[in-house]
Design brief:
rod-shaped; 21 strands; six-stranded antiparallel β-barrel; single chain; alpha+beta; five-stranded antiparallel β-sheet
């Protein structure tokens, strides 16, 4: 009985194992079928937007980098020493030419002006006194014969000359003695000496007038210098621009050896760039340029080539070119780093696509060309940009459609919907 029960239990166990194996085999077949069905199902089409690659003439340029600098920059120093009593500007202040930057204490300078003016008045009084001494009126030319002493001596001398000539005639006729003639001659000679002395004295007095007039001129020059020094108490801006630095503070003592402010003119701005040797024939004064900065990545600032160096650098084989960039808006600042494009006269045909159609990864650029409802991945070589378009030097032909959206979902050969 026990062996019969054992036999039945083993038979039942074998039956259960067989059923379980059969069920597992059936389930595995169904799973394989599902996997095969999934593998054979194509992926869904990706929605994309497209744009047509266009071909047109593209102006050519070459790029270089440089730092922006002010058109003019100057350090302003006082022309006289003194204590700062007023400051009219600060860093960033716009200034006009002649506007006060700093004012110095001018009390002592005013006293010097008053002293110099008094010396001028004193010198002028001395001139009037010297002129009156010889009877010379202001503005009148000097004539020694108009001096009273000279005129009187001249009249007396002329009378003595007449008497002497009359005596000469009388002595010939014997009407007067020789003694009388000698007396007239001696008198004439004495009066001539007096006349010469008076004439010399008049000329000497006029020399005194000249000295006095020279003293007036010297005093007036000293007065003008004192007034000029007084004007130096106000330190003005030498040009229109902005204050980039102010070093003078209220109450500080300054001298001509130290600056009080730095003024920079920011329109236009200058930028120096190095042009490669092979591009030298393409550069000329007046040529258009554009500048871009990281602060304004979406703006181009126009300018022109203003100066070209006469020689090429022997070390770098480049030519230094200085361009002027229009900064009437004041957006650019001296010291900013700029990328400058120098436009060339020639234009060449180029294939352009929207910049958003190009996907760049690890330095490799690619686009997806849409053909017959499928995406075709192509590696491309890009060139210069033109607004929101980019040049494709190799990889895409004109009039081909390129995907401009959902590129991250695209693979080579995948179906797409437009």
């Amino acid at each position: 009985m026990r062996s019969q029960a054992t036999f039945k239990f083993a038979l039942l166990l074998l039956l259960l194992i067989t059923v379980a194996a059969f069920i597992a085999a059936c389930g595995g077949s169904k799973a394989n079928v599902r996997k095969e069905e999934t593998a054979n199902t194509p992926p869904p089409a990706v929605d994309v937007t497209t744009a047509t690659a266009i071909k047109r003439d593209l102006p050519r340029f070459f790029e270089a980098t440089g730092s922006l600098a002010g058109d003019q920059q100057t350090d302003v120093a006082p022309q006289t020493s003194g204590k700062v009593v007023a400051v009219g500007v600060d860093i960033g202040s716009p200034v006009r030419r002649g506007q006060m930057l700093v004012r110095l204490d001018d009390a002592e300078l005013k006293l010097r002006v008053e002293q110099a003016a008094a010396q001028v008045n004193q010198a002028k009084a001395a001139v009037r006194q010297a002129e009156e001494k010889i009877g010379l009126r202001p503005g009148q030319a000097f004539d020694p014969n108009r001096v009273a002493e000279v005129a009187a001596a001249k009249v007396t001398l002329d009378l003595a000359e007449k008497n002497l000539r009359r005596a000469e005639k009388l002595i010939e006729s014997g009407d007067v003695s020789r003694q009388f003639y000698d007396q007239q001659r001696a008198q004439r000679d004495q009066l001539k000496e007096q006349f010469d002395v008076a004439l010399a004295q008049a000329r000497q007095n006029f020399a005194g007038v000249e000295v006095a007039r020279t003293n007036v001129a010297n005093a007036e020059a000293a007065l003008a210098l004192a007034k000029q020094n007084l004007s130096y108490a106000v330190i003005p801006s030498p040009m229109d621009g902005f204050v980039s630095e102010r070093t003078a503070d209220l109450g500080e003592y300054v001298s001509p050896q130290q600056k009080v402010a730095t003024i920079v003119r920011t329109n236009p701005l200058r930028v120096r760039i190095d042009v490669p040797e092979q591009a030298i024939p393409e550069v000329r004064v007046g040529q258009s340029v554009s500048a871009m900065t990281s602060a304004w990545p979406d703006r181009n600032f126009s300018g022109r080539v203003a100066r070209i160096a006469p020689n090429v650098s022997a070390q770098s084989r480049t030519l230094t070119v200085e361009a002027e960039i229009d900064n009437s808006s004041g957006a650019l600042k001296p010291g900013q780093f700029a990328t400058v494009r120098i436009l060339e006269e020639r234009a060449e045909p180029a294939v352009l696509v929207p910049a958003r159609a190009v996907v760049t990864d690890a330095g490799v650029s690619r686009v997806f060309v849409i053909k017959n409802g499928h995406a075709e991945q192509r590696l491309v070589q890009t060139g210069q940009t033109e607004g929101d378009l980019i040049e494709i030097k190799q990889g895409v032909a004109a009039d081909e459609l390129v995907a401009t959206s959902n590129q991250q979902q695209l693979t080579d050969g995948i179906a797409v919907k437009q």
